[in-house]
Amino acid sequence: MLGDGFLDWLRKQDDRTKTGLIAQLEERERALIRHDWPLWRREAQSPPRGAWNCWVICAGRGFGKTRTGAEWVRESAILDPDARIALVAASLGEARSVMVEGESGVLAICPPNYRPFYEPSLKRLTWPNGAMAFLYSAAEPESLRGPQHSHAWCDEIGKWPGASGKAEAAWDNLAMGLRLGLHPKVVATTTPRATALVRRLVGEETRGLAHISRGTTYENAANLPPRFVAAIRERYGHTALGRQELDGVLLEDVEGALWTRVLLEACRDDRAGDPLQRVVVGVDPPASDRGDECGIVVCALGASGIAQVLADCSVAKASPERWARAVAEAANGWNADRVVAEANQGGQMVASVLRAADLALPLKLVHASRGKVARAEPVAALYEAGRVRHKGLFAQLEDQLCGLIVGGGYEGPGRSPDRADALVWALSELMLGRRQEPRVWQI
Questions:
Q1: Per residue in 105-156, pLDDT tens?
Q2: Which pLDDT score, from 0 to 100, does residue 32 have?
Q3: Using an 8 Å Cβ cutoff, are 267 and 401 in contact?
Q4: Quick check: 309 and 400 in contact, CB under 8 A?
Q5: How far is CA 406 from CA 59, 254, 256, 380, 414, in A?
Q6: What are phi and psi of 280, to 5 degrees?
Q7: Rounded CA gap, 308 and 271, in Å?
Q8: Are the CB atoms for 213 and 205 separated by under 8 Å?
Q9: Helices (H), 121-204
Q10: Do 396 and 294 meet the contact criterion of CB atoms below 8 Å apart?
Q11: How many CB atoms lie within 10 A of CB 337?
Q12: CB-based contacts of 357, cutoff 8 Å, min separation 6
């Protein structure tokens, strides 16, 4: 029953079908397919199609990065008896305990009848066909100067020591020694951290020098304890740490940015207890409906005098009717006292579109006489002074805030910080009053 044809067919089935069929097999048959990685792996754990040199798996904790790296090493060793594989971790201890001896390490995932001979004192594994793997520490970059390899697996490169440029030196020395065989390859597995090496490799994707696979902890939920998944989602699901460690998002602080991740995390507070005195919806209308976002952010002033960011209701690629309706729904849903909308794209047109969506909309149009960054600077100062709280995680809005640069410029996602601009209008109305001195039309 377990011929190659059946296994090829089984690999193409969905998880439910696989589980049902495998449950009907005898224990002897199940043991045979237990080590058939193509049968169990998810698409995101499959090597890139076509020719590639560098594969970076940048994903959340528990995604299955270690298993993927170990399985790739096993496959490489089986297919190439002449393979000389480098196993590089932040330290030799981690190379041994995680990459080789760990629950998802090389020894654990190899079938008993084709397990490599492990010599810890020599930091070496040898497969029955002659393929070999060697352990290295990224903390000792010079140990990678000289040895030649055909393959390499680098684990948790985000943890590699960055002092004195050791991480990048280790990577460069490894890369210069990848010159055995017809097509040397390297796989790097890591939880995303904004280190110099991780940023460099992710940046190489656009130049075709690296293939990046991304994923979240939750994609592997079927193989994780349900209580663990529920606990981490509850505790970290609405934090920047959760975005990095669970969602696998690379969070970078841009040099000279008005907002930083640390600042925003310090302002996060979803506890109740500060009654709302005023609610304002800030709006940054799009210049067109060909991809621009309409920034729609709801902010409030609490009885304590602290401003609260309540919701990001922004919409993308929306017609005037659709974004106006989204503004009206946000205002009605949060019982807003006022909608503050930028009128640079045509004040009366903006007013007409919003009025068409809701005649009772309490609307105030403001004309921006200064650039987005100049308007944002006094609002960023409110954050620094601890006078603003985020009532939840607003990922896209916060990414834009962290892209606004002191003195001008924007280096965040998208063409324009529309969500951030909407927040600035709302908080300026609530907290800065006439000190902003915008030109105002009361409608």
A1: 999 999 988 999 999 999 999 999 999 999 999 999 999 999 999 999 999 9
A2: 67
A3: no
A4: no
A5: 31, 10, 6, 10, 18
A6: -130, 140
A7: 11
A8: no
A9: 166-177, 196-203
A10: no
A11: 17
A12: 321, 324, 325, 327, 328
Residue 257 sits at the vertex; the CA angle it makes with 161 and 371, to the nearest 5 degrees, is 160
Q: Which two tokens stand for residue 32?
A: 């045979």
Q: Is the pLDDT of residue 3 over 60?
A: no
Tokens of 324: 């106006």
pLDDT digit string, tens, across residues 148-180? 999 999 999 999 988 778 999 999 999 999 999
Quick one: DSSP state of residue 355?
H
Dist CA 75 CA 310 (whole Å)? 50
Residues 65-98 pLDDT 10s? 999 999 999 999 999 999 999 999 999 999 999 9
| 438 — pLDDT class (breaks 50, 70, 90) | very low
Q: In the structure encoding, which two tokens stand for residue 85, read together?
A: 């594989």
Length of the chain: 443
Q: What is the largest CA-CA distance in the chain?
A: 81
Of all residues in the chain, what percent are helix, strand and coil, respectively (each to 5)?
Answer: 45, 20, 35
**pLDDT, tens digit (0-9, with 9 covering 90-100), for 27-63:** 666 666 777 888 788 889 999 998 899 999 999 999 9
pTM over 0.70: no
Tokens 């030649």: give the residue.
Answer: 148
Separation of alpha carbons 420 and 435, rounded Å? 19
- Minimal CA–CA distance to 423: which of 289, 293, 280, 288? 280
Specify which residues 364 forms β-bridges with: 340, 442
CA distances (Å), origin 334, targets 286, 331, 395, 430: 22, 5, 20, 15
Q: Is 130 left (phi over 0), alpha (psi -120 to 50) or beta?
A: left
pLDDT for the residue 40:
80
Burial per residue of 168-198, b for 16 or more beta-carbon CB atoms within 10 angstroms, e otherwise? bbbbebbbebbebbeebbbbbbbbbbebebb
Q: How far is CA 243 from CA 62, 215, 255, 358, in A?
A: 14, 11, 21, 36
Number of H helices, E strands in the chain: 17, 16
The pairing of strands 84-89 and 151-155 is parallel
DSSP state of 120: G
Q: Residue written as tokens 């000792």?
A: 140
* H-type alpha helices, 158-225: 166-177, 196-203
